[in-house]
Prior knowledge:
By secondary structure, the chain is mostly helical. The chain has 3 domains: 2-115 and 257-289, Four Helix Bundle (Hemerythrin (Met), subunit A); 132-196, no CATH class; 202-253, no CATH class. The protein contains 11 helices and 5 strands. The protein has helices at 2-23, 28-49, 52-74, 80-92, 99-131, 133-146, 148-168, 177-197, 237-246, 259-275, 277-289, and strands spanning 199-203, 212-213, 217-221, 224-228, 249-253. The protein has a 3-stranded antiparallel β-sheet. A two-stranded antiparallel sheet has the order 3-4. A hairpin with a 2-residue loop joins strand 3 and strand 4. Helix 1 (2-23) packs antiparallel against helix 10, helix 3 (52-74) runs antiparallel to helix 4 (80-92) and helix 5 crosses helix 10 (259-275). The chain is flat. It starts with a helix and ends with a helix.
Amino acid sequence: MISFLIFLALIWLVIASMQDIKKREVPNWLSFSLILFALAFRLIYSVINSDAWFFLFGLFGFMIFFLLAYMFYYARVFAGGDAKLLMGIGAVLPLSFSMYYNLILFGTFIFLFLLTGAVYGLVYSFVLVALNRKKFSKEFFKQFKLRKNLVFIFLILALTSLIFVIYSREFLLLLLPFPIFIFPMLFIYAKAVEESCMVKEVNSKDVVIGDWLYEEIVVKFSGKRKKIKPCWEGLSEEEVELLKKARKKVKIKQGIPFVPCFLVSFLLFLWLWYSNWSFFQWFWLFSFNFP
């Protein structure tokens, strides 16, 4: 029963990761089918065994991760395909018959996902920088000059916090000035990576629905000029058709293929589940009860 849900999620995550790496998109049918199959299996099992909780827990997991997915989507952390895939994982993750332990499972996966995502994003960006060293260096200094006032403000804040820590003798807070100072540098680094390594010029015939337009484009349609503006949701079907008819070069912003992070997080989750679950329960219990 549990093994089937785990196997189902693994197969879907592997396929979705391959699609994301190859095409930078996750087809809707893939995400929706994971949700459908997971909930359908839970429903059939619940009917056969006269146990509604197995289905209700899956539905509850789907709803929790539905809310998380939309929160990440509107915070512009996720694209639409990533958000839908997270909902499918939510339908799979309630692997216990206890609500309390299912909540621990949810928290476990989200913790692993955020940690893995941070490491994955940095490593991926380092690879992009290594492959585009000259363009990145030029763009980094350009972004630094544009935002030198921001760097100066955060430097003042970091020095002020350092003086406060020394004056108050709260030496446990000595690390506080570092993240304050490093924040604008990370922002400049991320912006430089985006501008120098993640913008690609393609033929309009090669654009697909959901592609992120880098800059506004004006196309002629039926004798009229129409503006197509960059949008977080990506290009619509109508906009793609207009661009293909225009037959011109367009700049597309490519995102990081993030679905492999789902797969790695799920594998780490399974490793903890099977090999060291007692320690992991202790970790979460300690976190919840710490004063």
